[in-house]
Amino acid sequence: MIISNLKIRSVFAIALVLTFSSCCTDEPADERDLSEAQKEWLPDSNMESFTMISDFGVQESYTHLDYLVSKYLEEDKCGNISSDMRYKTSYQSTLVHNNTFNLSLETLNQREITIEFGTYQVARYNFDDNEMLENGYGSDSYPNPLFIEIIQNWEMDSVVYPEVMHIQYDADDIDELDALELVMAKEYGLLYYRQKDGVSFKRKF
Amino acid sequence: MKKIHHLSILAFAMLLLSACCDESILLHSYSLTDTQKNAVPYEEGDSISFNYNGEFEFQSEVLSVSNYMETMYHGIESCQYSEYENKWIQLKSQHPELDILLNVSAYDNDYYYDYEMSYNPYVDSIRLSISVNHKGFSIVTPSDVNWAVEQFLFVDTTILGFDFENVLLYEHYSNWLQAEDSTAIYFENLVYSLENGIELITYTNDDYIKFEN
After folding, report:
1. CB B185 to CB A58 under 8 A?
2. Residues B34-67: pLDDT tens digits?
3. ipTM of the predicted structure?
4. In whole numbers, what is the pLDDT of chain B averaged over residues?
5. How many CB atoms lie within 10 A of CB A190?
6. Which positions 14-73 of A are in contact with B (Cβ < 8 Å)?
7. Which residue in the set B52, B181, B187 is minimally distant from A95, CB to CB?
8. Is the pTM of this model over 0.95?
């Protein structure tokens, strides 16, 4: 009987030791953030508006709605804190209802950028793996791009932009006034887009 | 005590029932006058020609012209209501992207009816609301005019060098709320005539859309 009690106590003691030894070391806080180079995809925060001009001379302005920086904190069972960052900037057309240009950068799942354009066009790109992500809507109303690529030294109107993101859609997935392709540059945001109907817009500087 | 309790429940139930309408009662029905019906010269299926800055011509299609009666009750708990005829017209173009909504309403036709039972200065006035791409425009009334009586006054005006006679002049709401970045482009004015409909739409950077005869 005494031996049996000893066995039980020993098992409990070992379990307790194992339990405590399996966690709760003092980990340094894991603060996930994007690199400075990745943050450059956000337009300059002083950019209050920008104007696009079509090859017919029709102009459309977008004004700044808001700029949000969010920090998400998570505490594990041992009290260690980790954090993620999200940056979002939003622009809205002054002339066309529901035409928007929004950019968000975040680290919540991976280091990624989300571009929202027009009403239904949403594109996501993973900086960790340098590849396109599904936009997550799972709906034909929100088509995924065909591809997203980073292009070095892209030229428009005799100006060379060191790094741009080129987003291409499949014409079968989009409406006449949707962007078939669009190009955005670090620090400037939207530079160029071409609609499915053939009309293209360039940034007016 | 129990009897009093039952009586109060009964009284409450009667109050509730008396607040409900067995049947709604139509007091007045206001149709658009002939002048109001003819205030918008567009017919469904029409293709209206405009030019942009005098540089290129584009078509705006009249997608729909519809009439319906709008119902309005005379108070939150009233059983009495009146109805007002409305006419909606929608035009659309692709480039420039325009979604234009025009609305003529008989709403003001009864403005003084219940109070004076006599002359109503609003009867037969053109109560025409216009929005472009969901952006609202309001009528511009010269400051020396009694706004309450002459709500929709026809004026002569010159905008961007174009002369117009006997037109309604509108301005975009943002001109009141303004503020905004002066480098951004907004709608500014809209000129409307009974003969041609939309004559001119201007932007704050002096770009314009003009009706082509």
Report:
1. no
2. 888 999 999 999 999 999 999 999 999 999 999 9
3. 0.83
4. 83
5. 22
6. 48-49, 51, 54, 56-64
7. B187
8. no
